[in-house]
Amino acid sequence: MLFLALLSASIALADAPVLKLWHGYRGGEEQAIEQAAKAFTALTGTQVELLAVPYDALSSKLTSAIPHEAGPDVFIFAHERLRQFHRMKIVAPSVALDRSKYLAPAVDALELDGTLYGYPLSIKCLALFLREDRGFAAPTTTAELERLLTQAADPSKNQFGLAYEAGDFYFHAPIFFGFGGVLFKPDGRSQFDTPAMTSSMKWVKSLQDRKLMPQEVSGALVKTLFNENRAAVVISGPWFTGEIDPGVPYSIHPLPIVSDTGLPMAPFLGVEAAFVSSRTRQPELAQAFAKFLSLGDATVTRVTLGRQIPAELAAYENEVVAKDQMITAFRAVAERGTPTPNTLEMARVWEPMKLALRAVLQGGVAPEDAGALADRRYRALNREAPPTTSPLPWIIGIVIGLLAFVGYQLRAGRGTSFARRFPEAGRGLLYVAPAATGLFVLVIIPFVIGLSLSLFHHDAGDYTFVGLANFTDILTSKGYRITEPLSFYFTLVVTLVWTLANVVLHVSIGLFLAILLKDPLLKLRGVYRVLLIVPWAVPNYITAMMWKGMFHQQFGAINAILGHLGVEPVSWFTHWTTSFAANVITNTWLGFPFMMVVSLGALQSIPTDLYEAAEVDGASKWTQFRRITLPLLKPALLPAVILGSVWTFNMFNIIYLVSGGEPGGGTDILVSEAYRWAFQRNEQYGFAAAYSVLIFFVLFAWSQVTKRLSGAEPA
Amino acid sequence: MNRTLSRWKLFALHAGLSLLCAATLYPVLWVIKLALSPTQTLSMSANPFPEAVTLDHFRDVLGSTDAQGRWLFGRQLLSSLVVSGATTLVGLTLAVTAAYALSRFRFPGKQSGMQLLLVTQMFPATLMLVPLYSILQKLNLLDSIGGLVLVYATSSLPFCVWMLKGYFDTIPRELEEAAIMDGASPGQVFIKVVLPLARPALAVTALFSFMQAWNEFILAATLLNDTTRFTLPVALQRYVGEYKTEWGHFAAGALIISAPVMALFFALQKFLVGGLTAGAVKG
């Protein structure tokens, strides 16, 4: 009997269906979801393959994989992107969902035009964390909170009252709502230049000015301040409980009511749900699995192991969960929350709001002007689709062009026979064919498609032909002033300065080192050379992350060194000059070895008797350098400089990972700007492609100039 | 060159070079310190040497397993090696033949083809990602090591071809003609005469192909959907979260990934100087 059961189980296992689940969890949450998946396998015999993708990369991976039939059957994501997922047709309605089993706002968040998508797993929102050992009562109004903070803070001892990530709109939103702010009017339009915006900004700025809370707060700083008892109050979410040191006594409370308005600070409510892919080949099984994850034992596992706040009502009746103070406290907080709107417009609010918030907190913009700033950026990002035009004239033009080209080629070849002109054509083409085929399919075709994309407008999977509208919008800087970081010309100037600064530094440092190292009699020469080449061998995204860490305001090595020299810690990424300098320093470190090696090779090819002759003639070292070294270096160095300038011009990784465009997109270069339009601003591929085409034109023009300079083909 | 450097000058030279080396190596030491320190966070300290040493981070990264208990790091390392090795092999084969033809034979479309190669390098790679994804789907190469290898090999081709062509141009044709006189077939000439002479350039090209595939991460993260087949850089991405970075694990992983490339660099560095410039001088 047992044998039979085992046998049937193993048969079931052999051709058992496999479900794929993609998620963005780490740590305890990841363990919990793995355990829940195992439980599902034990119950049904269905194997589950899990894939953990970093949360910020998950959405674009989903939207590209699922339509191409390469995606998962079930994926876990926050509900904010639901509208976008729906428009790209990658989510299926949750047919087996029973509304009554979950918290009402959690289900509401998953509703789209009367249909429900996904099974709610957990909720996330902000709450107030209070250190219990300070003897303060939980504040219920902002007036009480301010009184508490004034007592708790002591600027002379570097003690603050409150700490939270004030530069992030997710954290500012409850304050904004508490002061009566409204993101979207009933007609769906938005207007941020309102009194509520001003008063919420003023309030936060005044807390910072009175030193009740620190400047430029990061998540890491919040953690440190709370654990070291240098902040009595913290605003954060459920994940913060994992950051608090054991032994620190704390309690969790709802955010206070704003005294001026009488409105509660209502945090955004994020609902994480298990969504079923619209392209799954096993819809019933996928629905069953998604439902399984959201209920019963799976919920308990997610709560106890993953420390999630469950969306399922029954979970709160569970003995273990009911006793868990953190979970019950957050449930009370969640009841005041409003689900983050799952609209496309909401996705475009974050960037403008963050820009305005940081501008106010850094003192560059008055609270009164913040709304206007956010409005302008919001409008610029929400480009309206240009009018659709007919592609016919373009098609005719391209056909005529091609015909003319072919005709010209035939004419040029007239007279001499093909075999005489190209006696080795057969062999040559044979040798080139494999490379040419590969290049054609995987480089040339994507390149041509990339070029032609610039004539289209892309919106949630649909392309419409718009002619040159993308280009005119970019070149006339539509929607923003020429001097704003979003404008093409501003970014172009930044890119040119960036390229020039880097190339000059690379070449001068590289050449200088090469001259020091060139003497063959120098001892340890090989050792020095090996050590100086190291930066070249480090992958550039690692270099970028490493320097990003070194430029960290509180914990970075650079500020530590400056501290030893008696310089105040520099906040590298809040000012354009320092932020730009940080990028340049990183890229210089990474780039000089290449120039050094090239220079070394070129120097070694210069005959030494030239210098000896010059010495005899009494030429100074400087004259020797100018008259012999430089002219003879030129042929080797120039191609390297050209190559280096093209690499630097498109050096995406460093900009994106080190400064990330801060402050306010000011240090973005053209490539990173194109990337943002393509992947962070509602997939405006057409607009991004137009940017890329312009980059291409700039570099093409540059290559023509350098061709003249070198007097030959550039390498 | 001045053959008799005075003692003082020599001292100054060594002091200067040591200082520059120290400045160059400081960030690397800092990463080593992060990898060896027991915490996951950055610490406010200018000292590049660890105060307390533990191998925990290395152990965690090297011993990472998945939900089924499979040894993830081992599989990912293998995947990285296969991808980079195959890319080097495929890329070099394609580049060598094409570069030789471009250097030696005349055939229609040669000049415009070479210009086109250069031109495609000026278009930002990120935007090619969108069409590339659809093409790979049509070829049934999504989520496969083979697809990744082909993409890597072709995307590094323009650079490799240009470098190798430049080097082949510097090899005198007389050598080949002599070999033909001695009765060698064109194939033999290519394999037995030209390739051995081009060894420095081949080494450098191979190094670059390998390095590009070994280090690349955006394409790999987009195209691969199976944790056990991830290349190491994609695996490393897991330690760098939007809200929380596990600096200790990241640093240990970064060192593990950089080590093979550094070793290759040092092994091949004598070719680097010659291989890079010989082609470049000629253009």
Molecular structure report:
The complex is a heterodimer of chains A (715) and B (283). Chain A is α/β, with parallel strands linked by helices and 715 residues long. Chain A has 4 domains: 177 residues, D-Maltodextrin-Binding Protein, domain 2; 174 residues, D-Maltodextrin-Binding Protein, domain 2 (3-Layer(aba) Sandwich); 84 residues, no CATH class; 197 residues, MetI-like fold (Orthogonal Bundle). Chain A has 30 helices and 16 strands. In chain A, strands 1, 2, 3, 4, 7, 12, 13 and 14 form an 8-stranded mixed β-sheet that branches. In chain A, a hairpin with a 2-residue loop joins strand 15 and strand 16. With 283 residues, chain B is mainly α. Chain B contains 12 helices and no strands. Classes of the chains: A alpha/beta (715), B mainly alpha (283). At the A-B interface, helix 2, strand 2, helix 3, helix 19 and helix 21 of A face helix 1, helix 3, helix 4, helix 5 and helix 6 of B.
CATH structural architecture of chain B: Orthogonal Bundle
The CATH topology assignment of the largest domain in chain A is MetI-like fold
Give the CATH level 1 class of chain B: Mainly Alpha
**CATH H level, superfamily name of chain B:** MetI-like
Strand element count of chain A:
16
Average of pLDDT of chain B: 85
Runs of chain B in which pLDDT lies below 50 for 5 or more consecutive residues are none
Query: What is the correct CATH architecture of the largest domain in chain A?
Result: Orthogonal Bundle
Task: Count helical runs of chain B.
Answer: 12
Beta strands of chain B, count: 0
Radius of gyration of chain B: 23 Å
Question: What top-tier CATH class of the largest domain in chain A fits best?
Answer: Mainly Alpha
At the fourth level of CATH, the homologous superfamily of the largest domain in chain A is MetI-like
- End-to-end gap of chain A: 76 Å
Name the largest protein-protein interface in this structure.
Answer: A-B, 132 and 116 residues
List the quaternary state of the chains.
Answer: heterodimer
